[in-house]
Amino acid sequence: MTEETPGFEEQPDVPSEAAQTPDDAAKGAGSADKAGPAAPAGDLEQVALQAQLDQVRTALNERTADLQRLQAEYQNYRRRVERDRVTVKEIAVASLLSELLPVLDDIGRARDHGELVGGFKSVGESVETVSAKLGLQQFGKEGEPFDPLVHEALMHSYAPDVTETTCVQILQPGYRIGERTIRPARVAVAEPQPGATAKGGEGEAAAPDEESGGPEEG
């Protein structure tokens, strides 16, 4: 016969979950609440980073556009300065050479009269060489058609051997620098004889009558 210990009773086995106290249950619930919003917080952080990235990209695009615009303005400025520099240089050279034209005319007349000799010849040729290096070009030749843009007619006559207004004598040569005319060539011009074309036409028209032998007798 088994003896029982007075005042001690066996307790049935209780699951561990059921054995939790109310405080433990509250702590577990709090942990669950904290773990739940973790995902939405990460999404908000990603959205904020994306917004910052968009702002940086917008600012970069604006600065890039400003830089491109500034570079284009600088290139235009450089081209404008270079163009103005060339124009100023051409004007200065043209002004200088315009003052030398009478000297060149004297050298040319001396050469035509056989007086360009000795030291004067050397000086004259040096002046012409320097002028040519600066871009000065002489123009105007006998026999070329008259062009009022580059020729100035000082004398006028008629000639039977020309078919259009022609420069028959160069009184003073013209000069240009590039496409800029410094002084037109001063020339004597000749035009065809008045009525020469009409007489030629009458002669050609009369030829068939002569060949036909005149009108037939009735």
UniProtKB/TrEMBL annotation:
Stretches of the chain forming a coiled coil according to its record: 53-87
Biased composition regions of type Low complexity, renumbered to the chain: 27-43
Acidic residues: bias regions: 1-12, 207-218
Signal peptide: none
Main location: cytoplasm
A Pfam family per the record: GrpE
Region annotation (Disordered) ranges: 1-46, 188-218
Localization of this protein: Cytoplasm
Keywords: Chaperone, Coiled coil, Cytoplasm, Stress response
Highest taxon listed in the record's lineage: Bacteria
Keyword Coiled coil: yes
Coiled coil among keywords: yes
Role summary: Participates actively in the response to hyperosmotic and heat shock by preventing the aggregation of stress-denatured proteins, in association with DnaK and GrpE. It is the nucleotide exchange factor for DnaK and may function as a thermosensor. Unfolded proteins bind initially to DnaJ; upon interaction with the DnaJ-bound protein, DnaK hydrolyzes its bound ATP, resulting in the formation of a stable complex. GrpE releases ADP from DnaK; ATP binding to DnaK triggers the release of the substrate protein, thus completing the reaction cycle.
UniProt subunit comment: Homodimer.
Family designation: Belongs to the GrpE family.
Full protein name: Protein GrpE
Source organism (scientific name): Streptomyces niphimycinicus
GN (gene name): grpE
